[in-house]
């Protein structure tokens, strides 16, 4: 049986594109929700899950930070995917025939200048791939979709305008999740470690907890906080750092972190994507 990789969304979604670009040999398994994609891996229906965590334009993906610590899965990789937006239409239709374009509200906002320039009305759809499917099924020549080239390929639509996004560097970062961690992996472009923690209830606890990374020269690329358990006082922090826990400097920094926190959970240790520093 072909190994499968689960993602949230329909065939042709940008998450599907991430699966195809990163693991072209695996069969992509579309799932209705992020929870379904996680369950597919946990229950053995798929080997991996491809989950978006943040976008360079719109920030973090809602709910993901809450789902990761409770998922029972481990991060084993990351993938940076450039989000190129295309105008897709029925075969043979010209750009000047298009009156409206359907897509997810975020993509509609990303192509505002192009759509206004061509007098194209924006129509909100549930998601990008679903909008492409709707245009293909509706058969209305004046309606187009904003989606990936992959969606056009899947639903039989032509690309009549390519890469029309207002910001050409729009990039989404995905995390690759598996049932078992892989601490033995080493990457040519370095390693990343992702963890969550809660600080102890002492003055300046967060400041002191972060001090170990600075004094040991460990680069922290992300630090975000979010509430847990519906409480304003229970705050959990999500962090990405460069390096492997076996690196002496990282080990020392994590030891200091442990002293000032009530718990630390490593979500994954994985090779850095080579595109991590190439998103400008």
Short structural summary:
With 280 residues, this protein is of the alpha/beta class. The protein folds into three domains: 4-82 and 170-178, Periplasmic binding protein-like II (D-Maltodextrin-Binding Protein, domain 2); 86-161, D-Maltodextrin-Binding Protein, domain 2; 191-271, Alpha-Beta Plaits (2-Layer Sandwich). It has nine helices and 15 strands.
CATH architecture of the largest domain: 3-Layer(aba) Sandwich
Total number of helices: 9
The percentage of residues in β strands lies in 25-35%
User: How many E strands?
Assistant: 15
Coarse morphology: elongated
Number of domains: 3
Domain ACT: 194-271
GO biological process, one term: L-phenylalanine biosynthetic process
Keywords: Amino-acid biosynthesis, Aromatic amino acid biosynthesis, Lyase, Phenylalanine biosynthesis
Catalytic activity: prephenate + H(+) = 3-phenylpyruvate + CO2 + H2O
Description:
The protein folds into 3 domains: 4-82 and 170-178, Periplasmic binding protein-like II (D-Maltodextrin-Binding Protein, domain 2, 3-Layer(aba) Sandwich), CATH 3.40.190.10; 86-161, 3-Layer(aba) Sandwich (D-Maltodextrin-Binding Protein, domain 2); 191-271, Alpha-Beta Plaits, CATH 3.30.70. It is 28% helix and 34% strand. It has 9 helices and 15 strands. It is elongated, with a radius of gyration of 21 Å. The two termini are 39 Å apart. The model has no long low-confidence stretch (mean pLDDT 92). Residues 4-179 form the Prephenate dehydratase domain.
